[in-house]
Design goal:
With about 180 residues, this protein is α+β, with helices and mostly antiparallel strands. About 30% of the residues lie in helices and about 40% in strands. The strands form four sheets. The chain has a five-stranded antiparallel beta sheet with strand order 3-4-5-6-11, with no helix packed on it. It starts with 18 loop residues before the first helix and ends with a strand. The model has no long low-confidence stretch (mean pLDDT about 75).
Length: about 180
C-alpha cells in the first residue's frame, strides 16, 4: 500500500514509455552490447579515441547504405559491356540449425537468386553442414552446391580472381572444412 506524500496523494510511477519505445531500447541495448562492445571499446580507446572510431564507423555504414542503392540496382552485362538495371532482383533463402547431440549442430541452407535482366547469373545454392564444439574449438564440415552457369560465350561467370590473378570458380560442388578457436 502506498503512503500519501505531503500533498495527500499516493505517489506512483507514471507510464511514459509505450511498448514500441521499450522494444526500441531493448533492441538498441542488445545491438550495442553484442555487436559494438561499447564498454570494451570505451575502456580500450578512451573517450576521444572511442568517439573518433564511432564517427568513422557511422560514416562508413552511411556510405555503405547509400552506395547499395546504386550498387544493387545496376550491373555490368559481361557479354555486351553495358550497364543494366537490375532493380527487382531477388534472393530468397531458408536456413535451419538444430543441435542433434551435445555440442553437435546440423545446419541446412537453400537459397535462390534471380537477377532481373541478367538471368545468366540466376542460381540455386544448397548446403548441409555439421559443427562440433569441443572445449574452445569449433570444428566444421559442410557439403555445398551452386548451380550457377560456369560461363557463356567464352565469358566466365561465377569466377572470382585470387590475389595472384588466377580465377577461382565458385559454381559447382565443394566440401569445406573449418577449425576455429575462441580466445
Amino acid at each position: 500500500m502506498d503512503t500519501p506524500d505531503m500533498s495527500g496523494t499516493a505517489p506512483g510511477l507514471k507510464k511514459t514509455l509505450g511498448t514500441f519505445q521499450l522494444w526500441g531500447i531493448a533492441v538498441g541495448l542488445v545491438i550495442s552490447g553484442e555487436y559494438f562492445g561499447w564498454s570494451y571499446g570505451w575502456a580500450s580507446a578512451g573517450t576521444l579515441g572511442f568517439a573518433v572510431t564511432v564517427v568513422f564507423v557511422a560514416l562508413m555504414y552511411t556510405c555503405f547504405i547509400y552506395s547499395s542503392q546504386y550498387w544493387f540496382g545496376l550491373a555490368l552485362d559481361p557479354l555486351t559491356g553495358r550497364h543494366v538495371s537490375t532493380r527487382g532482383s531477388t534472393y530468397l533463402e531458408a536456413n535451419w540449425s538444430q543441435e542433434v547431440a551435445p555440442g553437435l549442430t546440423l545446419t541446412l541452407h537453400v537459397g535462390r537468386q534471380h537477377l532481373r535482366r541478367l538471368g545468366m547469373f540466376d542460381f540455386t545454392d544448397v548446403k548441409i553442414g555439421v559443427t562440433k564444439q569441443w572445449k574452445t574449438w569449433s570444428l566444421g564440415l559442410a557439403a555445398m552446391h551452386n548451380d550457377g552457369a560456369r560461363g557463356r560465350q567464352q565469358v566466365p561467370l561465377w569466377t572470382f580472381l585470387d590475389a595472384n590473378g588466377r580465377g577461382r570458380r565458385v559454381s559447382g560442388s565443394a566440401v569445406v572444412h573449418s577449425a576455429t578457436q575462441a580466445f
